[in-house]
Amino acid sequence: MPQPGQAAPTVLVADDHDGSLSLLCELLSREGYNVVQAEDGCQALARFRDQPVDLALLDVMMPGHTGLEVCEAIKADEATMLVPVVLITGLQSTEHRIAGIHAGADDFLSKPFSKEELLARVRSLLRLKHFTDELESAETVLFSLARGIESKDPYTGGHCERLSKYSVALAQRLGLPQEQQKALRRAGVVHDIGKLAVPEHILLKPGPLTKEERAVMEQHPVAGERICAPLKSFRHVLPIIRHHHEKMDGSGYPDGLTKEAIPLTARILTAVDVYDALATERPYRKALPREEAFRIMREEVKRGWWEAALVYEFEAVMRGSEFPAAGE
Length: 328
Fold this sequence. Notes:
Number of helices: 14
Order of helices and strands: EHEHEHEHEHHHHHHHHHH
Helix content: 40-55%
CATH superfamily of the largest domain: Hypothetical protein af1432
């Protein structure tokens, strides 16, 4: 049952059997939920497109699209993949349950079901959905703060979005798992969020930094890690934030790590970050053409700063992609 002062969660009920559909809708409506009906799988998917849904109860055997197919479509869409799905079925075999698990179902309800069991499962999954929504809100705030930092500097417009795209493209070429690709997509946006802890007179200083100012600046990866640490969903992002200014020869910061001690995802973001810095306009120079940017990076590889393989693979990504040069 919705808490006082909270908007009623929206529950989608999809069943081609009129009696079952009416019963489910009546039980949920009595509990104060906003109920949306669908008489088959096609209607269920249309309802998802039309309005936000907090929980879906899907009959497995429906015409058009089965409940399994609707569940797969919901879980395959990034916009709806976190919506809990309960499959309602009269099929008791282990095989059908396994098929439901593969489709991404969060729970099962067997016919005939009791009112108490139905409502207990609905309450439990909606509680989890509420926690998920709060987590997404926290991530949104972090992304907004990160973009706010970027907006202070007219020369870094679009930098975060480019880093996200470039680093994911490189990770895909290297065959990294989806989890690491997702971490890189997030890190591209929030990697410099620790600059919130850097005074503006240092952050926006047009000339060279003093030794003391540089020491403050070089702590921003540590501050960024600390800001994002409370989010458990960022556990794979934190090493990227902390180590994206390390160099292969140990001359980077904040920890002076060398070679493979630097996480691969951090090394990937470093490579694309260096490229973007060279290929975009700065107060002291024009944006460098792509070829010149990579020539400089190859020279810096010889100095031991960057990983040769990643620079060459990233150059191949850029040559074979439709990405425009950052300064174009």
